[in-house]
Batch of 4 targets.
Target 1
Amino acid sequence: MSGILYDPIDHGTPDSSPLLAGLRSGAWLDVQDFPPLCYAVPGIIPEGSVLLVGPPKIGKSWLVLTVALAASDGGKALGLDIPKRPTLYLALEDGDRRMQDRCRRLLHSQPIPRSFQYLTRVDHGRVLDTVAAWLDLQADPALVILDTLGKVMPPALNGESAYQRDYRVGSYLKQFADDHPGTTVLVNHHDRKADADDFVDSVSGTHGLAGAADTIVVLTRPRLQDDGLVKVTGRDVPEGEYAVRFQGGYHWALNGDSLAAAAAAAQSTRAAAGLGDRAADIVQAVAQLGLASPADVADLLSMEPVGVRVYLTRLADSGRLIRVKRGVYAPHPLLQALRVLLPGGRTPPT
């Protein structure tokens, strides 16, 4: 019995149960050396099963194709360096002509990488088998992109609820990634088409898909506008929110020259949400300055200091800004903390 409890690596004792074959001890765990989390897109899309969620026609397919091209050739996506790896893009809503046109637009007519691999059709009911067959031929880590899940979502089995179906499918996708260390299985999926206080609740379908996924990435962008947000949460990846821009109808880029800059821009946008133009300008000005007096803001925005002082007082009273001391204001604490990560950022007051 002591062998089972304290030496689980040795399963040779006659009375050891096969049910305990995977039992581990704290001593075993303490001496393991696990590799760090591997990212397909640094800071945003890690290894494991990842759901990319957003409304139809918002530009999700442009984003995942950008990532696929960058990963297959070691290029850039969102302005970030993307590690090179074997990549399979299941573009199940596209054809060869559209794929060629989109690749050429993203690559500015440069040759499409020879290592870029894609499928536009899979046998009915065989998408999971197709992914498994391709992964078995690749070196780890790899990247698989399924665009979109709704195109191949199977019906529920007899006696199976919608939640059970969603969790079953999500678990299969997760298993592919788990069986290939460092691999990312990125699934393009539509949202609920309804507002949600928690962005995880925007995932279309039951909570089975969200529950099975390792990471959820939500892409939002108001119609007819370029500015959007990427929101990230997951089991291993740090939660984050990053400002992005959709330029020219096909090109996604961070709003800033780094993840920290994009995070600061997202927090600044959130702080100004629901405000009038002038108040929003003042919030943005304080975010830019780091620490600011009414005179500083007035000078930056070419306003009268008296009017700026009134706005600053109201914004501090509503929690949009922080009153450091009389006549000195700072951004929201989270935004202020992010500023120290940026080039030229000021240190928060002590």
Target 2
Amino acid sequence: MDDHPPGGWADADLIPISALEHWSYCPRQCALIHLEQTYDENLYTLRGTRAHRQADEVGVGSARGVRLARAVPLFSDRLGLTGRADVVEWHGATPYPVEYKAGRFGPRRDGRHEALQLCAQALCLEEMLGTPIPAGAIWSHAARERREIPFDDPLRAAVPEATAAVRAMLHGDRLPPAPNDARCPRCSRCSLFDACLPALAANPARIRGHQSELFHPTDE
């Protein structure tokens, strides 16, 4: 898939960079958003929108002597990725992507999902600008601090793998199975909890029972 001819991607085959984070977090969530076009708001998504407010304003400037650009359009002919970077700083001649997130760093948020998205941005920038990018950062709006992410070989290899997986999912006709982490933060904090119904979707026997009641009602 990665050897697709440059510029030869059909629109339906282009993968949004944001979908990689969704896929890493939960393939079913990714499918609901990008395949079923389902999206709901909750406290966490609203916090995310607020955290992105400044980064979403297209423009160039500087901060503390560092040149930067906001809402930078991104594209990869090699991978068939499209999207944008919240902020790209220039450390000397080296681009340095920065992704804005609302939550704090901690044991429940190790940043691996965001790191995949950030690395995908870096791979796009490397292709667009023809320069290596060794690292970027995730900015925590809640903690008002950043965590640097080195783009090592395993992380770089994970980007085309995730891209291919998302593309295969989008060309399919079934949602991935529900993880049913209803008592864990992944499900309980997801804005699509009511659309996903993980406890029900993860129990095929229960679904078949409801289908039987729906299409073969019991005589009263």
Target 3
Amino acid sequence: MGALSQLRCLDWEAELEWAIQVPLGYTPVAEFYARELMKSSQLRLVEDEEEVLPGLKAMAAPGHTPGHLIFILSQESGDVIFTGDAAKNRAELLSMTADATMDAAKSRETMAKIWAIWRRRPQSLLIPGHDMPMALKDGVPAYIGRREAAIAAWQGDDLDQITSYDLTVV
């Protein structure tokens, strides 16, 4: 049996129902994909707060989309909180304001829930949807590692000549 045939997709029914019902072109999610996914034998619908793998719990996190989920991996040393687009970056977490959301009030509620989970075990690691992993330092999110940004460009006569521009703000 190949790896692809063993692939499983986890989703929350609320998310798929929403994806199927939105008007054509309303979201970047192709509605026909959601319809076909609902028919797939590889789909496993999960419940809010269900343990989907040993130690990994799915939790409802509406706002970005109505059926968005976050995942919490429980470990002795602390949790690992995967927020996805419920909290995409440090700025959203600190301001409690989501940049791209279908329901700003629900996003604020979800971010409050994320903060409560994080503060429950302050040694936990948070991995946002579009930013670097963070840990709490004196109650404030601090990046794990150094943020870096660069551009690599082909400005020479062949693809072996690459010019790099460091965009890291120190």
Target 4
Amino acid sequence: MKGWGRFRTLKERGEWVELVFMAAAASHGYHVLKPSGDSRAYDVAIELGGNLIRVQVKSTTKRANTGYSSQFRRSDGAKKPYTLDEVDFFAVYIVPLSVWYLIPAVVVLRPIRRVAVTLCPLPQEGSRCKYEHYREAWGLLGKTRRDLARASKSRKLQPRSGGMR
């Protein structure tokens, strides 16, 4: 979508990206909830069997060598980092390419907290694309917090095929 550059502020772009995420998640069969206001660490919730999966939505247009750089800092300027008590997933949208990465928060926050990662939707020879299996991994949203915690310990975080059933 070429209109993404028309936003006057990053906040406006962030609000738009949240809407894009909600539409995409709904199209994959998920029940999407939006909290009122900006006081939560997460932007959107996915209702899964009576439980909520909390998603922090990020976007990037910043090209960095072989990929796009995405930061995992709060946009409100607070120095406090995200925690697993607040967020279950980071959904990162690479705006110029219309590509989603659905990364479990445990991957970003443990064992070493990352404040930024490089995502590589355009494969290049010799590049090490550590997060490629999270590209368009909508099936991961169908996992519970318990599934995510258990899988992260065994390093087996694989997406389920498709959306919720």
